[in-house]
Amino acid sequence: MRIALILPFLIATFATFGMNDYTQLIVLYIAINIILATSLNLVNGFCGQFSLGHAGFMALGGYTSAALSMHFHPFDGAFQFLNFLIYALAGGAVAGAAGWLVGLPSLRLKGDYLAIVTLGFGEIIRVLFLNTESLGGARGLFGIVGLHGIDLFGLQLSPFFMSCTIAYLWASFTFLFLWRWTHSSFGRAFLSVREDELAAECMGVNTTRTKVLAFVISSFFAGLAGSLYAHTTNYLSPASFQFTRSVDVVIMVVLGGMGSLTGSVIAAIIVTILPEALRPVQDLIGIDIRMVIYSLLLILLMILRPQGLLGGKEWSYFLDSSLKRTTDIWRRYVRRPS
Amino acid sequence: MQDFIQHLINGLNLGAIYALIALGYTMVYGVLELINFAHSEVYMVGAFASYYVARYANLDAKPGIVSFITCLVVSMFVCSILGLTIERLAYRPLRNAPKLNVLITAIGVSLFLQFAGQAVFGADPKVFPEVLQDSVLFEWGMIQLRLFDVVILLVAFISMAGLHFLIQHTKTGKAIRAVSQSTRTATLMGISVNRMISITFILGSSLAGIGSVLVGLKYPKIDPLMGMMIGMKAFVAAVLGGIGNLPGAVVGGLVMGVCEEMVVGYLSSTYRDALAFGLLILILLFKPSGLLGKARVEKV
Amino acid sequence: MSAVHHDALLKLENVSIQFGGLKVIENLNLQVNRGELLGLIGPNGAGKTTAFNLISGVYKPNSGQIFFAGDRISTMPTHEIAKKGVVRTFQNIRLFKELDVITNILVAMHAHCEYGLMNVLGKTKAFSRFEEDYREEALALLRVFDLEGFANDEAGGLPYGVQRKLEIVRALASHPTLLLLDEPAAGMNHSETAELMNLIQRIRKDYKLTVLLIEHDMKLVMGICERIVVLDHGTVIAEGEPKAIQCNPKVIEAYLGVEAT
């Protein structure tokens, strides 16, 4: 918990002084993707439902947050970050409510059908915003307020530092929230729905409520991520919320391992960095084959290692098992029985 | 009234094309219970294949039936090969994997083909050569019946009739129907499931190929991302009619086409794409088995 | 012999269900008395598992009602029926295969979970205490049935007999009053079946259960059931004590090919 609070500041500090503009943006994207991937994992990985509309919830959160920020800023100066807290929560709430509306009727559909409904939902949201001129329409919404730099006891904190810190604070919060949730009875209920819905229902688990809950929580965080995205890039357009965005998040979840939160974090980092890391290849060949490699990797992943990097287990499992192996060796060879 | 009839003609045309592509989706779903996301890209590749062949054989210099049929054949051939390859390399290894995994793979293949298409063909749109010359066949006031309209309807009809014959009146068709009912039982009856699935892919992909040439005729601008929208709509059409149900795909496609034309004509063209998704969600919420589908009770 | 008045725990009144044109259950009248060990037998396709599905709420009857402890459960959702105390096992074992044994048990306890969102997020002392208690309860349950050693193993990897046992133990974790066992001896040999017979009788006594049992293994049925109901084509064709059922000509006719002992 303490790590969760300090880490964002560390990352922000490092990023502000150690990187150029472009890399700084990547760092922000990583935070946003972590929130997106871990929240989607809740539905796809832990609950075994297939949602392809994460982008739609992100869009809802982002636009709500942006719209709110255009008309409502109660706090000033050093407390302006509270404004953004309100915007983010509002974005999350709207997205969560949408998740409830969409989830309740759709979650009784079979796997593939749910995927299509959520896909359709995402697209409808996008088209809706595309046709909302007051929010920029197709051109997009420019000049969304972001965090200003502040002067803290003589220390000049840049806008980026503020944004980065807030972004990673949210990411930590998301991770902590989801971690605690999945390590509780509710988390076990999610898993049971994934494993065998009928059996779970017969054991007293309200599967509909469980699935909707997963959906609502997941959409809430997607909305939160959307809000972050809006205020840190200061620009929103429906083009950022296409189906490919939802697929991106799905890739992160699958790569990290469905049912592994730490896996999603790692995958989010990898997936955000990968296109940039492949840039030299692109420069070499001259044509943009990054996405080609990307999609090829997805196919290979599903055929060769569908359980993802961490195989659905959390990082702690590997630490535990290597710790166990070490103590076994210790016990066997060092502390010989007398 | 005249407007309406024109819209109806256009709608039926569009619907016929949707039906052709929808058939591909529905057939694959019938035998594999898989939504073949890559189908839309197979369609796209077909369009480009016939584009390149038409270009290099200078077919637009001699427009007419022969050139047109050549394009059709080339497209069908290339699409079939592509469809077969995808099935063999991406779907067959996952035959026993959880449905989610195959779905993700299908999306992966679709994306791969889109991006590879952009890399190989170039992202900017190409103009499909005029392998057939359009003309107004029949005019009545404001209503125009063009040659292309007739050709599209005719070709679509012949293709669908051919498919119907194959599925209903040949041994192969019967085998395919058996596989879509129960793969296990079909195996026990001595049917080569793999072979039937391959044939299904060939049939579905060929239809997509035909559809792509017809689209190339009427809307000559082709680009590597052309498959996405039309594929989505055709898929919705398939679900609308009842996924897995062949006549359903045709009905769904026609309904979709006509509805879209009407929305564009009488409401606003900006909502043309949203219509598809709106219809989809409505159908899934109220009658998931589709217009012609039968609700299947799961036995515990 | 005076009629002993029994307390009916489960009551099916004129229950019918059909799928398409097939009438699987037709005017089924069945009563299970409190504390009883009732066997439900009949040839394949008689509708025994369908009856279980109806009782547990997986299917809703087309007509008729089902009462449990006075409440009408035929209109309740499945999970509520389970919470009321009607728990079942499945013909084809339905364990949570990729989860470990102890998690399987803990899921069954979820319905009775006493903490909420705030406790979870805040990781309050109450939450930690409850989790510890639940874990202890689950382990204790496993210990009673000699399954404690498997606690952290993946359920799907266990030997067949252990899986069957685990499914029953999992059902016990939901604090049932009525236990429905669907062919628990399927695939077992003689010694395993004998063990199972002991297990069923033991849990009935220790956990004060009423047990309704579907089985094809006549040795088991005749061995432990106090009363037997015979189903054929979705309706009751005979009921009574094991000895009477064995000699009942209607039963023999329906069953053709059953070993008489």
Question: What do these coordinates show?
Answer:
The complex is a heterotrimer of chains A (338), B (300) and C (261). In chain A, 74% of the residues lie in helices and 2% in strands. Chain A has 338 residues and is mostly helical. Chain A has a single domain, classed as ABC transporter involved in vitamin B12 uptake, BtuC. Chain A has a two-stranded antiparallel ribbon with strand order 1-2. In chain A, α2 packs across α10 (243-256) and α6 packs antiparallel against α9 (207-233). Chain B is mostly helical and 300 residues long. Chain B is globular. The longest helix of chain B is centred in the first third of the chain and has 31 residues, at 2-32. In chain B, the strands form 2 sheets. A two-stranded antiparallel ribbon of chain B has the order 1-4. Chain B has a two-stranded antiparallel sheet with strand order 2-3. Chain B has one domain (18-228). The mean pLDDT of chain B is 87. Chain B has 11 helices and 4 strands. With 261 residues, chain C is α/β, with parallel strands linked by helices. Helices cover 39% and strands 24% of the residues of chain C. Chain C has helices spanning 48-56, 78-84, 101-108, 117-122, 125-144, 160-173, 190-206, 218-224, 242-247, 249-255; strands spanning 8-19, 22-33, 37-41, 63-68, 71-72, 86-88, 178-182, 210-214, 227-232, 235-240. Chain C is globular and about 65 Å long. Chains in contact: A-B, A-C, B-C. Chains A and B meet through α5, α10 and α13 of A and α4, α9 and α11 of B.
Quick tags:
heterotrimer, A: 338 residues, mainly alpha, ABC transporter involved in vitamin B12 uptake, BtuC, two-stranded antiparallel ribbon, 14 helices, 2 strands, 74% helix, B: 300 residues, 11 helices, 4 strands, 4% strand
What's this entry about, in short?
The complex is a heterotrimer of chains A (338), B (300) and C (261). Chain A is mostly helical.
